Amino acid sequence: MKAAAFAYARATSVGNALELLKAYGDRAKVLSGGQSLMPAMNLRLISPEFIVDIGELAELRGIMVTDGVVRIGALTRHVDLLTSPDIAAHAPLLTEAIAHVAHPAIRNRGTLGGSLAHADPASELPACMVALNATIIVRGQAGERRVAAVDFFKGIYETDLSAEELLISVELPVAGKNSVHYFHEFARRHGDYAIAGLAAQATVEKDVFTDLRLVFFAVGDRPVLARAATRLVNITITPPVLAAASSALSEELDPHDDQQASAAMRRHLAKVLLARGASALLNQPDLNAGGRA
Amino acid sequence: MTITSSNPEILSELDRPNSYIGKSVPRPNLERLMQGRGLYVSDMELPRMGHVVFLRSPHAHARIAGIDVAATKGVPGVIAVVTGKELAAVITPWVGVLSHLKGLKSAPQHAIAIDRVCWQGEAVAAIVATSRAVAEDAAEIVRVDYEELEAVTDMRTALDPATPVIHPALGDNLAFERNLDAGEVDAAFASSDAVVEADFIFGRHTGVTLEPRSVVADWNAAEARLTIYQGTQAPHMVQNIAALHLGLEESQVRVVCKDVGGSFGIKVHIYADEMATYALSKLLRRPIKFVADRVESFNTDIHARDHRCRGRIGVKRDGIITAFEIDDLTGIGPYSMYPRTSAIEANQVVNLVGGPYVTRNYRARARVVFQNKNVMCQYRAVGHPIACSVTEGLVDLAAAKIGMDPVEIRRRNLIADDAYPCASPSGLRFELLSHHAAMNKLMAMMDYDALRAEQATLRNKGIYRGIGIASFIEVTNPSAAFYGVGGAKISSQDGVAIRLDAQGSVICQTSITEQGQGSESLTAQIVGSVLGVSMERVRVILGDTDNTPYGGGTWASRGAGIGGEAALQAAKILRKNILDVAAAILQSSPNELDISGNAIVNAGDGVLRMELRELARIVYFRPDTLPPGIQPELMATRHFVPREYPFAFTNGVQASWLEVDTDTGFVKLLRHWVVEDCGTLINPQLVDEQIRGGVVQGLGAALFEKCVYDERGQLTNANMADYLVPMSGEMPDIDVGHVVSPTSETELGAKGAGEAGTAGAAAAVANAANDALGPFGAVITEIPLTPQIILKALGRI
Question: Mean pLDDT in chain B?
Answer without folding.
Answer: 96
